[in-house]
TrEMBL record:
Residues 13-42 form the 4Fe-4S ferredoxin-type domain. Coiled coil: none annotated. The lineage of its organism: Bacteria, Pseudomonadati, Pseudomonadota, Betaproteobacteria, Burkholderiales. InterPro entries: 4Fe4S_Fe-S-bd, Co_F420_Hydgase/DH_bsu_N, FRHB/FDHB/HCAR-like. This is 4Fe-4S ferredoxin-type domain-containing protein. GO terms for molecular function: oxidoreductase activity, acting on CH or CH2 groups, with an iron-sulfur protein as acceptor. Signal peptide: none annotated.
Length: 215
């Protein structure tokens, strides 16, 4: 007897939005056909996907695999075991890790400009300096807040000097839809700085898309 094929699990954008579990990362919008979806601010000042009825109501197996709020997508434990298979330790509370340390950026300027010791910005700078990545996706101030109707957004930095504008934590609604499209369309190696649920979205997309996995 042949083993029974597993049913294909699908998910609609409307399911995630209606459940109140959407984290506003924008990964579903990045995957949407051009002109069918975008990110919009709701009455609570939170960003959520908005689009045509066909897009909102369309059952998608890919969305079920890549949305960080999908109940059938790989969870953080599965992602970590694949991404950090070399890690020697695993803890039920913190996950997989090689070592745990306390520190700050020693190079002048980074610690003072950062929120938590300046480590994230300094590591991003080192990745660029050493040629390990070609660009860094991170939250930056916009050039024209009044014109754009917002103060911060995700952007791409390709030079160390550009990173300073993105230092410090930004407690402000942002999404990754635009930069994810850029990463998908423009060849190169990218580092992405983000909160855990956004980084989970990036890792799920990398598991599903060979181009994003390579970049």
């Amino acid at each position: 007897m042949r083993p029974r094929a597993r049913p294909v699990v699908t998910l609609r954008p409307a399911d995630v939005i209606g459940s109140g579990l959407c984290v506003g990362c924008g990964s579903c919008v990045a995957l949407a056909p051009e002109g069918t979806a975008g990110m919009a601010m709701d009455d609570y000042g939170e960003l959520h996907p908005a689009g045509t009825k066909d897009w909102r109501e369309h059952p998608s197996a890919r969305l079920a695999r890549t949305c960080p709020s999908s109940p059938t997508a790989a969870n953080e434990t599965e992602i970590a075991r694949d991404a950090f298979s070399q890690a020697q330790h695993e803890d039920a509370h913190v996950g997989r890790y090689i070592g745990a340390f306390v520190g700050h950026a020693a190079e002048p300027g980074w610690r003072e400009a950062g929120s938590s010791g300046g480590m994230a910005s300094w590591v991003a700078a080192e990745l660029l300096r050493r040629g390990l990545v070609d660009a860094v996706a991170h939250v930056k101030p916009v050039q024209d807040p009044q014109g754009e109707g917002r103060f911060f957004r995700y952007g791409i930095s390709r030079e160390v000097g550009e990173l300073a504008s993105g230092s410090k934590s930004r407690y402000y609604p942002v999404d990754m839809a635009e930069v994810l499209r850029t990463i998908r369309d423009v060849p190169g190696r990218y580092a992405v700085v983000g909160i855990p649920c956004f980084v989970k979205a990036v890792q799920l997309l990398r598991r599903d898309d060979p181009v994003l996995r390579e970049r």
